[in-house]
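Support reply, case 0932

Customer input (verbatim):
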Amino acid sequence: MKDKENFSDFNLQPSSFKNLWSLDPKVTFLNHGSFGACPIPVLSFQQQLRSQLEQEPLRFFTREWEPLLDAAKSKLAAFVGADVEDLVFVPNATTGVNAVLRSLIFHPGDEILTTNHEYNACRNALDFIASRTGAQVIVAEIPFPLDSPQQIVEAVIERVSPQTRLALLDHISSQTALIFPLQQLVQQLQARGVETLVDGAHAPGMLPLNLPEIGATYYTGNCHKWLCAPKGAAFLYVQRDKQPEIRPLTISHGANSPRTDKSRFQLEFDWMGTDDPTAYMCVPEAIAFLGSLLPGGWDELRQRNHQLALQARQLLCETLEVLPPCPEEMIGSMAVLPIPNALSNRNFLAIRDELFDRFNIQVQIVPWQETPKLLVRISAQIYNRIEEYKYLGKALKELIAESGG
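Our regenerated output:
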């Protein structure tokens, strides 16, 4: 790593909250949004569950597994405002999106609407379905930078046609970190007879959720990101009347189970073969732990992260002499800003790697389709401090100067 003597004025000592995570204290970690980070007490709880499983695997999977899974599902359902019967666990939000898309029946001429901000993995799933069925993927071009959430609504609704069967929408976009005006979008699409599949990968833990109030037909979200559960924990919510149509990607024992105490939807998704289910079972522990860190619980945590993201964005915009690309109301605990033109000809992976290799900064660099060609996406979690974003600004300024900017 490059000598940091030019950066000695930055106080990069980890916050007291960072000690609750096993993150490397030498790394300025500003990319919680990509894969999350699980606190030490939650990981310890998972290890207890794994020990319980391995000490007596047969007892665990025949007696203990289902009550533990049901209890975890109940706590998560309450956290997202849903009825427990309408929610199942999946390993990640991409799996949730694929399960819905692979279950629905599309015909040649059907249209599936999405946006140019959609996550690449889910766009690939759309293209796969379209290639197999003859359906067409229609892309609403949402401008970025933008001035108002209404621009998203107008761009999406403008592309609805009589052939539109389904709309796949982000709740919070991965590339641009925008909070979509989701409830308004869902209402307007429903009024036009269009069902909605929401990729809510970043939303649980970043935003307060009430899934029935949002009204989406299908909603999937990760628990390993802003809920800070272990990797491999996410959920899929499906409106009750649509559940008979939705099957898991792996068909297993639930498909012909004689049980009548649970819906086929629950039975199929609960057991898709032998796996380690402990990430799901840790979700209540993660909810309780994160909610205990501040006196105001989850409301205060979300607000604190939001304010830090806004403060960091403003600081970096001033440092790099760029304009904020969206209104503050469209930001949660992540924010993006354009990287000045002096670095626009550089590969985004090269910039990301150089920030890590030279400055020990872990942050997301995002390629964009139009000007600005490159974005830097910052995350704000409780363990972050404003000094870390000042340090990022200084490092970016140095790279820009070296590129002739």
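We compared this against your earlier run and they match. Two observations from our side: The two ends are 23 Å apart (CA to CA). The chain has two domains: 5-30+295-402, 43-289. Please reopen the case if you see a mismatch on your end.
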